[in-house]
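Troubleshooting: if your tokenizer reports a length mismatch, compare your output against this known-good record of 278 residues.
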Amino acid sequence: MRVTVVQMNPGANKDDNIAQARRLIESAVADDKPHIISLPEVWSSLGGDRASRMANAETLPEPGSNEPGGPAYEFMRKTARAAKVHVHGGSIIEKGPEKLFNTTVVFNPDGTELARYRKMHLFDIVAPDGTGYRESNTYGAGDQVVTYEADGVKVGAAICYDIRFPDLFWELRKQGAELIFLPSAFTAATGKDHWETLIKSRAIETQCWFAAPATWGKHLEGKGEARFTYGHSMICDPWGHVVAKVSDGIGWATARLDQTVTARVRRDMPVLEHRKRI
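Known-good structure output:
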């Protein structure tokens, strides 16, 4: 299986973001011919004020229905169908009954929705550079662990801040995951010290491949204040080696997921069998 992670520099204009995603996906599909491709976290709407986030949020169709979704949802569904590729949709902003949700939607090459995951762990912190973040003011937290199958590979879903909570990834491994996607909008302040270390750690612990598409660069908040995300989208193997990585700027990276590598790592170090509940 060939896996591609897409790195974007989105803003608050959803139409522009969709156009950027379309250009990158079309180029990646033409050049690398992946079986599955992923976008970053909140790729369709990053920055802006609360009103713009609400305006960019989409009401998702009921799973399994043929009802149309919003522009970002339909773009991913049509892209999957046109390119004959699985699309792991990073995350988009979903309208909920009381709050928004940060939600991943996955489509198979027929354009059928395969899975839906709502981000569990909300980013309520003050970063090392003094910038405050409080996702829980706007977003609700998901409560479901989500896996799905793509071309014979069991895939697990997580989003950004989830990476700091190992129990979620152990549960994905227990459910059979071999590949875990982590679409992110990691801050530059935390990313420079923690991004690669955390991804390698979760890959080594769970003996899964990790595919982490990320946003990069400058983004403007509602009052024009600048915030920066780290980028460095990457794919890591189950031994903790980074096998593909995106430089600064927009772009993509592709790697071949070799299931024999997964099987060998798990055979030689059967950590799931050895793990004790304490």
